[in-house]
Write the structure tokens for this entry.
Amino acid sequence: MIKRTGKRALLLLLAALMLTAGLPVLAAEDLSSQVSAITSQLEDLEGTSSSPEEEPPESQPEESPLPSKPEGSEPAGGEDDPGEEEEPDEENPEEKAPLDASSLLVTGGHNTYLSGYEGALFKPDNNMSRGEVAYMFYNLLAAKPPVSQSQFSDVPFSSWWGPAINTVAAAGVFQGKGGNIFDPTAPISRAEYVTALSNCFALESGAVNFPDVEGHWAYPYIASAVAKGWITGFEDGTFGPDKPITRCQAVKIMNSALERRDEDFAKDRAQQKFYDVPSSHWAYLEIAEAAKPVDSMVDPPPDDRPFKKGDTVKVTADIGLNVRDKPSGAVITTVAQGTLLTIVDTASWPWVQIRMSNSRVGYVHSDYIELANGSGGDLPVTGDGAKISTGRVSLHQYQTFRLDASVTKGMDAMVWSSSDPSVAEVGYTVPYNKTEHGAMIYGKKPGSATLTFSDRAGTTKVSCAVTVTAPESVRYAYNDANTVTTNTPCNLVAVTDTSRSAVRFEIVKGPAQGTYNVSEYETQTRKSSYGLPDNTVRVFKKNMSFSMAGSYTLRAYSQDSSGAFSTDYKEFNLLVTAAASTTVTNETRLPSRAILDQIKSFEGNVWEIEDDMANRKHPTVGHGYVVNLHKTFYNTLTEAEAYALLVEQVNSNYGSTVNNFRTKYGVRMSQAQYDALVSFVYNCGGNTLNPSSYYTPAVILNAVVPPSDLGMKTYSGKLNVGNGLLFSSADITSSRLATVPGGSTVTVREYKRFSSSTKQEVWYKVTYGSTTGWMPAGYVNLNLSNPIHDLNYVDSTVLAYNFLQWHTSNGTHYVGLLRRRLAECKIFFFGNYEEANSSHPNYKKNTYGFVFPTCCTS
């Protein structure tokens, strides 16, 4: 998304765009002479995204603005769920700027624009295809551009929707999906539909708070539609941008956009005789307004539904099938291709109510299931090669244990059983693929049970011995500030089950000592979507402050019904500082509350464990916590537990990773720099701070205190993060003198450091061969006997560029990951936590003019 960020940013943008096009980057004065000629074009693009045809190639040109990351340096193995993040723009063919401020459609009036189906059916819950929506728009166009041939290879002009699709494309309402493909039979998503409709009207600025829309490619179009009153979203507070839009949803939105809600709205409602749209249907009047009336009654259509109550059906969707809480409702889980389901009811056709193997009930669309074994719904009974990942499990009461199971064939014939379901059972399974799933074992009460994984014929089976012990006295304990200044109030927090009546907090290490008992608590409950017992906890808080700075270790014990306090405990740490500081030091740190809240916002929340659809076999729960194999954890998390789990994992794993990196290399850093790195490794994995594998940590280690005699004598340096650029002056907009190959040795003659609230850059004056010029210091590993790694001297030009490249997963570019990296850069270089928050108006803006990777220039 192009934003106006001043002349310097325009120069950078133009340079990047020219590189993308394979053009040479000119000197600064040459660029300046061209800025005025393109400024108006750039301003026209303000607030819009490019269409797929305008996307730059993913491969880097021979000379990129800054070096690219090494091969294989995309995020992997971390805490990210990019599948919950935004899909790349090229997947969304309707994203483009609106044509002009006038409506392309006829507004007002009450002419119908949609028809029903044979047999007096409207099929209100059917998904609309791209071709059907194009035909609907064609019926409403105020003026139809003349077309005589098809621009799409998959839309013959002689087909029934050929003229309509090509006409609306010519009018600018729709675009193809790249090349000359339109894909008319593909379902159209709610985001695509709203975008196409917005292209017919003047776009109105607005802001929305749907959790599943923030960062989405269609955000400005959805925000405009909401601002205009066309749409409000679902009852659960989501918008469902990537869900297919149904016929009844589409007409409701269209009627609002066409301003039809006057005294003649649905005036012919008495003539509407669709058998599947009774007057009690929520969209009855909307459909009456949009559709041609049924002139006379006809015999009811025969019941030709292929399924009936009690049938066993098999999932045919190759990437898994969403199970919803009601027709077109919220997704409650996803089941893999080949999974067997039992039909409970077909009254909501084409949606059917089904029961899963774990007895959970939900709704699926009939297009993605078929009778098992082709007819009759017979249950498959034989499988082969049953295996489980361990034969012995131990967990506390109320905990869940991840155990994986597999077969060589016949997963749909496999079932789990328990010798004592009152002690332990498989609460539900998380499908990974056709032959593997994760079995989530739930401990109901202390005791022993044997879980068996077998096919229905009993020909292949394997068992696991489960021991459930007494519940933990304290599930979680932490300090809600994590890092706090002296004499500043904060809360000690402990989470227990409902059998505990009080908590004791005890300081066991630190500058001060003390013991604090708390008997008041807040009760939180989370209901299971899988029929497991409700999870109810007590949250105990002790408000206090610390007068002495230092590192503290505390323990939380709980009191049982007898009045005795437990011998087991949960231990946690707290850092108390004398004052809030932005100073760069080499002291051990803990993540701040600000970055914990930021990570929570980045990750969202998963109350019950589910697989990561972008990184299969990495199921997550809470705020991005990956549950590893044979790990015990709490499922069906309450709000307090999810946040406590985040604090626990960030402190013990990711904060420690950054501290270890800092200690190993003696890096001086500020709290903001530490926080930003914690967020980075939480998302991308701790190994990303390995300088022998990745450029990003190498650039960080290139930040050293320059020798005091640099300028009076020279030092050698080596380019260790790829090719470097040599400029005529210490400014990236100055003319480029040379490209220096990675691995080259240069002579460093002097340095310049720019440090302000808007600019953090360090430059070396270097000589390479016969050429002397200025190079961003992040390229150069200065040859010093005892370097002092100090992030006061970090170079934002090269480091931000490397940070921003970590926005891909499995080769796919994600807008959401790019914005997360941008937010982390704002924190790292400028301590700007405010703009890193998605609710800030500058969240998506490149406020500081960081140089984006070439693949992101649009």
